[in-house]
Amino acid sequence: MAGLPHILVTHPSKQSNIYRRALGAERGGFPTKLLTGFYYRKGYFPYDLWRLFPKRIGERLHKSLRSRTQEGLSDDAIVPVCGPWLELATRPWSLFGGTAAPFVEFQDDIHDRVAAKWVRRYPKTDAPVIVYGFQGSCLHTFRAARERGFITLMEITLPPCQFRIVAEERVRLGHPPGQSAPPARPLQEIKEAQYLINQSYFSIDCMRHLGANDRRMIHLPMGGDVTRYRPAEGPRPDRPFQLLFLGQLSIRKGLHHLLQAWHELALPNAKLLLVGALGDPDSKPYLDKYAGEFDYLGFVPHDRLPELFQESDAFVIPSLAEGGCNVVYEAMASGIPSIVSRNAGSAITDGVQGFVTPVGDVPALKRAILQLYENPELRARMGRAARERVQQFTWAEHERRLAGLLELLAKAGGAELPGLLDLIDS
Predict the structure, then answer these.
(1) Is 79:35 a contact under the CB 8 Å cutoff?
(2) Residues with Cβ < 8 Å from 274, sequence gap 6 or more?
(3) DSSP letters along 163-184, please?
(4) Strand extents, DSSP E, 98-212
(5) Which of 187, 162, 120, 142 is CA-nearest to residue 344?
(6) Which of 154, 159, 128 is nearest to 218 (CA)?
(7) What are the beta bridge partners of residue 35?
């Protein structure tokens, strides 16, 4: 192998700590480029235009802009292939915490095509080049990479089998199934990628179901911020038991199961706190049905989340399908136990750092909630175990594992691995 491999990370925006992949590669000593779109760079036009707005609006814009950068990542690594213009044109209210789902696929495709042209022009080098993409935005980029003889690596953020799982649940609930088959694009990307990073064992099982070979697959969980998220200090205040749900309010997240379980338990001196945007209109009837039995905060700024975890006694995410659930690592770092479904893809060991329940099993969900509600000592013990366990899943550990993986794949040169490469205990 001639020199350190060059790493080209490509993604149109910031989702689920995407920037940290480029940061990990750069800290591993590899020449790294992040092909992205809207990335805040102070002093560059048009990012500092926030100063022209009235103070209150300008401060809000500036705060949002600061979230579109990654501390520690060098400015030289940033390649804004589309700049801010594509996102500003397709998602005009994204800076204010809104979403524009109909435009996301279009944005991903445009970024992918522009990034592919950039990859075709990448300077020749004797060192291996790894193009690191994410599902939904790297099909044309991977094809360009293969033309150049580059290695292609894709991270699965939400496995395509989620469409079938959610469609079946929607039918069970009496809703139209919606989309039940995966879109063609992610399936094509899976075929184009030489290697697939999976954030959880659930994702690996889904890839196998789609025919992916174990000799192409890697298990690399996400990381958690153990500095920003920490256990509350001092004795617990005398307050009601608080169970926190954080994520999009949707059928996929198992919101309807949680609301049913909470209703049937009818616990005195207890509060269910729902945090997140309404991600599925068909979830609203369940919110209406159980109105008054929970507190709903809606979208909460990222800087408020550590406080919410510290104020809660337990965290719950009974998802039908996840890639890797970063909020579970944040709960663990905050020193509280979690109740997760088997498909939530986390580092929770059943009965140790919390409870792992079968998907859709409301009685099991009720038992787990009740055990934590009735046993403060159990909550404390599991919370301590969670804080200890998450030390294996810090972002620093993720960077270390990623650096080793990139070096290994560069040496493999696109050849198949001996079998599933599991980095969870490496």
Answers:
(1) yes
(2) 245, 249, 255, 294, 295, 296, 297
(3) HHHHHHHHHHHTS-----SPPH
(4) 129-134, 151-156, 195-198
(5) 162
(6) 154
(7) 10, 79
Q: What is the pTM of this model?
A: 0.91
User: DSSP labels for 265-289?
Assistant: H--TTEEEEEES-B--GGGHHHHHH
C-alpha separations of 28 from 233, 291, 404 in Å:
34, 50, 8
Question: Chain-centre distance of CA 251, in angstroms?
Answer: 18
H/E stretch holding 326: helix 326-333
3-state secondary structure of 132: strand
**pLDDT tens profile 341-386:** 999 877 899 999 999 999 999 999 999 999 999 999 999 999 999 9
Single-letter residue type at 149? G
State pLDDT tens for residues 121-131: 999 999 999 99
The answer, yes or no, to whether the previous bond of 46 is cis (omega within 30 of 0) is: yes
Structure token digits, residue 147: 């033309």
